[in-house]
Amino acid sequence: MTVTDILRTVARYRRLALLAAVLTLAIGVVAAFSPPDRFRSASTVLVQPKLANGQAVSVQVVDFLVPSFVRTIETRSFREGAAERLRAAARSADVSVSTSATTGTGILTISASSTDRDAVAPWAQALASELVEEIESDFVELTTIDTALPPSGPYAPNRPLILGVTLVMAIIDALLAATIANAVRGRGDRVSELRERFGAAVLGEIPRVRGGIADLSPEELLENPAAARVAEALQTLRANVTIALEERAHPWLVVTSAEPSEGKSMVSTSLAWLLGTVHRPTILVDGDSRRPSAHRRLRASLGDGLGAVGPGDLDQHLQATGSPTLRFLGAGSPDRHPAEVASNHLPHLLHQAEASGDIVLIDSPPLPVAAETIVYASGCQNVLLVIDARKRDLRNVERVITTLHDRDVHILGVVINRSRRRVRAGYYAQGTPRRIVADAALPPVEAPVDGERAIDDEVPVAAETPTQVEVPVAAEPAEEIEAEAEVPAAPAPPPPPPVEPVRTGPQPVLLWTESPRADDRA
After folding, report:
1. Greater confidence, 416 or 500?
2. Which residue range(s) make up the domain with 120?
3. Tell me, what CATH number does 331's domain have?
4. What percentage of the chain has pLDDT greater than the value 70?
């Protein structure tokens, strides 16, 4: 992830990042200002060897004795003796004592720290005096070389240091919060990210499917109750693509992706099937001769391929499918480079499709890995980009979009495949319309007499179907309209057509019910 990506992520989740930073700063402020101030004062004692029999004692003796002096100062009995030298106010203060020795120098530093500012200097000086006066040795001599002074200010807590570290941690926490939110929510804002970052319109969002549903043919997929959410998403994609293509000069579309295995073949075959079903005749071309898969989804063969298409002979190479308005041109087995095949034969295909008014949809390889894809895109001038929602890194997508823009190819939109986002659709997700007819006896309606007509005669009645469920529905008696008593002289109108008897039985009502779920049937 680059610095630009990080900044863009922070901007997208700025509220969460700001909250993390504020919490970290609050913790730092509490840590800096809640503890009381502590003061420290120190006294220095020098340990040096004496002269014995006219000869100086070895320095090694000093190094040997200094650790014992440090240990002596830390004992309780030594501190009680030093306390006798203090006034009552300083003696009752809570003081911490520490001693350090500098190796090879014979220097002892006695420190006293406390929250009582007036007690630390007396304690440090009393400990040094007690050590100098109580320790008697024939080998070393102890001298106070630095008396303890009252502290000028607290040594802890170090508020500038704490606040500086807190500020750095707040920045880090803000970045981590935004990055984690982006990773966890993943697709949650993928639509917004694509719009903000690339200016691309998201035309569809296909939910993730499990098991063998993804390998079904378009017809089986759209009719499978377990794939109702996928079918609805594909219908939405078809509607958006249809609207977008109406604004283009030619209804030619290339479906590609930035990386392999992002589901473009499933999207292209299903989209072609739906376009042919509700729009006008459609031609699906399997342009991925390296890894063809569209023929398996349509239960067709590889066929002759694009390389066999010449001027005026397109119909000879198209295969029929389960949809009467969808024809298929397989990938074939090209004997030349696919990019060369596309350059030489794609114009023949598009010219004939333009003459017949067919929609052309090409299932092409990922653009970064196949040279023929850019040839398809340049010829059709419309590209639909499929993106796997599980992919977090969009740098390849950015390269693809940049490449298409450099070639002046119009990006019709983006399809997010294998999305994890769920929409609470309720019964809209799996419902199917059913005809329900009332079984309650309705009040009989008299047939119209001469000069009268029943208003219900003008209301069309839906035809009954074999699968009818009887629900009682009350019907109002038909209103009657009186005919005019006198009619001005005029040519006699033709006799009215015979009136069919008005149904006195149940009236049909169209309701919406939920179809049984796959789990219920199981």
Report:
1. 416
2. 39-146
3. 3.40.50.300
4. 76
